[in-house]
Design brief:
Elements: H1 2-18, E1 24-30, E2 43-46, E3 60-66, H2 79-95, E4 100-103, E5 108-109, H3 112-120, E6 125-130, E7 135-143, H4 148-156, E8 175-177, E9 182-183, E10 198-199, E11 229-232, E12 255-258, E13 261-265, E14 275-283, E15 293-299, E16 302-309, E17 313-319, E18 331-335, E19 354-365
Parallel strand pairs: 1-3, 2-3, 6-8, 9-10
Antiparallel strand pairs: 4-7, 5-10, 6-7, 11-19, 12-19, 13-18, 14-17, 14-19, 15-16, 15-18
Helix pairs in contact: 2-4
Length: 366
């Protein structure tokens, strides 16, 4: 039971926190003698796809438990892995999922860049690259809609054809991504470097500081002051009528700035008050072509600040009193010259020219 809490629960919490846009997080267990009693994770036991029927249609975490254990009887023989992999594929096919993200329980998506990459991959069959052994990293795979038939065909093939062979070279990937920083750090007990995008074979019983990416430093909250104005973006936000040109439709909890400039209408502000503008932002990044987005903030026609947005950031700048008219006609003009469409860089079919997404924007009186 301790292993469920130290290894699997930490991994599951990290996947949930990573917001990789997964409808369901299916864990497949190879005959463990004990099972967790997590209230957020329903469990089904059995040996066939029919036994998992109660899990289909649910959202969030779910666990399917095979009642017998297959494990790994030899160095190049993984019947437990193959059964779990093939079962998850068949389950995804039966449930009608439009893509599959395969992430093994000792593999972590460490960086925001890596998680954004996984969210954006909707086509192809992509694996990472294991630098240590010079082969594709089987522990992290993203299989898009156009490769689901190939995935199903591989999963249905007899496992005997794989026995005695290096599995990493046998899957029919369409792309092996070498641009991300990552490796099987856990094999030699190395620390996961601070610039890592992913980590595999992560050890499960190390000192807390070893898992630094699971406990990121909290960004300081913007100061609270009387007269503070918070704008929240997304479908349930409060920016209707203020997003003028240069905005995509709101998504669940954010809104993308598109094209090369976006305009936001400020409210009438209190006289003789200077404000700080603070915002929570997230860039659209294309791995090889685009590592950051430039964001230039103008108040009316005056440049207030310039930022390099390379991940999920909390940014801010001053809005001096002399720049503001305060009569409801003030405009924030947000310039983002590096916007690009996911379709143009081969990331997905999305034709929107994406720059930076806003989650929250606040005006804080000094």
């Amino acid at each position: 039971m301790r292993l469920w809490e130290t290894r699997y629960r930490s991994w599951l919490d990290a996947v949930v926190a990573g917001r990789i846009d997964a409808t369901q997080l299916l864990m497949v267990d190879d005959g463990s003698p004990v099972l967790p009693g997590w209230p957020d994770t329903p469990v089904c036991s059995g040996s066939t796809l029919a036994d998992a029927a109660p899990l289909v249609g649910r959202t969030g975490p779910a666990l399917f438990h095979f009642t017998n254990h297959l494990g790994r009887p030899d160095m190049l023989e993984f019947p437990g892995w193959h059964r779990s992999f093939a079962f998850a594929v068949a389950y995804a096919e039966a449930a009608g999922f439009d893509r599959v993200i395969h992430l093994e329980s000792d593999a972590f998506l460490v960086s925001a860049r890596m998680r954004a990459y996984v969210r954006a991959r909707t086509r192809g069959w992509t694996a990472m690259w294991c630098e240590k052994h010079q082969f594709p990293e089987i522990a992290i795979q993203v299989i898009g809609a156009d490769q689901l038939a190939s995935l199903a065909a591989f999963a249905r093939a007899p496992y005997a054809a794989l026995v005695g062979k290096l599995h990493e070279w046998l899957l029919p990937y369409t792309e092996v991504e070498r641009g991300m920083v990552g490796d099987r750090y856990g094999e030699g007990g190395e620390e996961v470097p601070r610039d890592a995008d992913f980590a595999c074979q992560v050890q499960c019983q190390r000192e807390p500081g070893y898992y630094w990416w699971l406990h990121p430093a909290q960004m300081p909250a913007p100061p609270r002051a009387e007269g503070r104005i918070d704008f929240v973006f997304g479908r349930s936000g409060n920016v209707d009528g203020r997003t003028m040109e240069g905005w995509a439709r709101p998504e669940e909890n954010l809104q993308w700035m598109i094209s090369v400039a976006s305009v936001f209408m400020l409210p009438a502000l209190a006289p003789d008050t200077e404000f700080d503008l603070v915002a929570d932002v997230m860039p659209y990044l294309a791995l090889r072509q685009l590592r950051l987005q430039r964001l230039i903030v103008q108040v009316n026609q005056t440049v207030a600040a310039e930022f390099d947005v390379y991940g999920v950031l909390h940014i801010g700048c001053a809005l001096p009193a002399a720049w503001l008219r305060r009569d409801g006609s003030d405009r924030l003009r947000l310039l983002h010259p590096d916007a690009v469409s996911p379709r143009s860089v081969g990331e997905s079919d999305d034709g929107r020219v994406l720059a930076v997404a806003l989650r929250r924007l606040s005006l804080v009186p000094r």
